[in-house]
Amino acid sequence: MPADDNLDALLDLDTLHASLRHANVESMTFLNEVAQLFPDAVSFAAGRPCERYLSVEAVHRYIDLYRDHLAKELDGDLAKVHRTMLQYGRTKGIIDDLVAEHLAVDEAIHVDRESVVVTVGCQEALFLTLRALRRTERDVVLTVRPAYVGITGAALLTDMRLLSVADSPGGLDFDDLERVLREAREEGLRPRALYIVADFANPSGATLDLPSRYRLLELAEAYDFLVLEDNPYGFFTGDDEDGLPTLKSLDRSQRVVYLGSFGKTGVPGARVGYVVADQRIAVAEDQTALLADQLARLKSMLTVNTSPIGQAVIGGRLLEHNLSLRAATLRERQIYRENRRQVTEGLARRFPPGKGPEVTWNGPRGGFFLVLDVPFPVTDELLEHAGREHKVLFTPMHHFYGDGVPVPRMRLSASQLTADEIETGLDALARFIHEQVD
After folding, report:
1. What share of the chain is helix, strand, coil (3-state, %, to 5)?
2. H or E segment at 98?
3. Does a cis peptide bond (omega within 30 degrees of 0) precede residue 203?
4. 10 Å Cβ neighbour count for 384?
5. Within 13 Å and on the Cβ side, how many CA atoms surround 46?
6. Which helix (H) or strand (E) segment is 288 a member of?
7. What are the pLDDT digits (tens) for 134-183?
8. Closest to 271 measured CA to CA, from 300, 303, 321, 306
9. In degrees rounded to 5, what are phi and psi of residue 165?
10. How far apart are CA 27 and CA 258, in angstroms?
11. How far apart are alpha carbons 396 and 187 in whole angstroms?
12. pLDDT of 270-290, one tens digit each?
């Protein structure tokens, strides 16, 4: 219901949770509204997967495949099959075994299914992990800045202080990381974890090289913190190679909690993610349990369980491709590679060096995003102007810094666009930038 200034307010926003006034919450609301206000604009803003191969027919096929698989597992007991797929389900999930096998096939991550908790998207996995780690106000989480707004939001909702670490062209400034860790300890704080997207990060597109991955794991052990590795884009490399090994696959000290999602590689609408938490927790004298068990206990009080039907959709997609999402996403990977190439080559044609405004951009070899540097601060007002007057949208980078201060940078994504839309959008973007400079 719309607000009515003539009604007396029953509650005051200042009496509600502090996150409701935070810049990041405002950011998500604003960006969603802008996209709705200018539906005819070409949007380089959304980091959504390609829709070309999504179909209801495929969803039915996946469900049938998973039902047949389950019938074999349950010795043909159809009553149990229907109950498993249609009733309230196991808190840890009904496809945890398939997720564990998929990780072994695609990522060389070998964990027991009991270490897996299937969640409502990756965001729930992140929330549950921070909620478990946050014991007192001394507990803090670190992240590279600029950062995916989801980590900022999860920290806000769990009342966990977030400390920023500087980024670098290689994805992480290690000198700054050690500085932040030392200063946090000196303040009496307890750094519990570092959140990082090691492959084609959102928003920067940066990737940690192999030596940096080993160094991060060494620092995690030396300074006694966990690494929360979020990997939504790792399959979408720029060539036919499999990419770098995940931090989790390199982890020999159980320092890495692995956060995953089938939103980019499966069916976004299924809303299925997962967390791999194989760390041992002391729960009593001479007794331990998995961190995954504790996350499941929290989940039982939050979402109870993840939709079994949504899990069946993802389970069937995994089964159709022999548990390999690398195989399942071959067509999409080709589209993303071509779209990235078209955007970078299109920018080069429109902004040649030494001619016109000084515009530069990075060139990630995979993922969905690149960052464009322009000679003026990119505000939300300018985004609305671009959408209204030029029919093009992008994401101002200040939304990833968490302070609301405009910076001369914007994030672009072409993951959902066609070739014609990319050309039209780049033309419009060039007109907008020239207008602002001139």
Report:
1. 45, 15, 35
2. helix 96-107
3. yes
4. 16
5. 17
6. strand 287-290
7. 999 999 999 999 999 999 999 999 999 999 999 998 899 999 999 999 99
8. 306
9. -115, 140
10. 27
11. 33
12. 999 999 999 999 988 889 999
Q: Which residue type is seen at 83?
A: R
pTM exceeds 0.90: yes
The torsion angle over the Cα atoms of residues 191, 196, 202 and 205, rounded to 10 degrees, is: 130
Give the ranges where 230-329 is alpha helix by DSSP (H): 247-250, 291-300, 308-320, 325-328
Q: Are the C-beta atoms of residues 204 and 47 closer than 8 Å to each other?
A: no
Distance CA 188, CA 180 (A): 12
The strands making up 139-145's β-sheet, listed across from edge to edge, are 116-119, 273-276, 256-261, 226-230, 190-196, 139-145, 161-166
Angle, helices 174-186 vs 210-222, to 10°: value is 10
| Spatial separation of the C-alpha atoms in residues 71 and 68, rounded to whole Å | 5
Displacement of CA 141 from its chain's centroid (Å) = 17
Residues 6+ apart with CB under 8 A from 337: 236, 238, 239
Could you tell me the end-to-end alpha-carbon distance of the chain, in angstroms, rounded to an integer? 43
d(CA 387, CA 432): 10
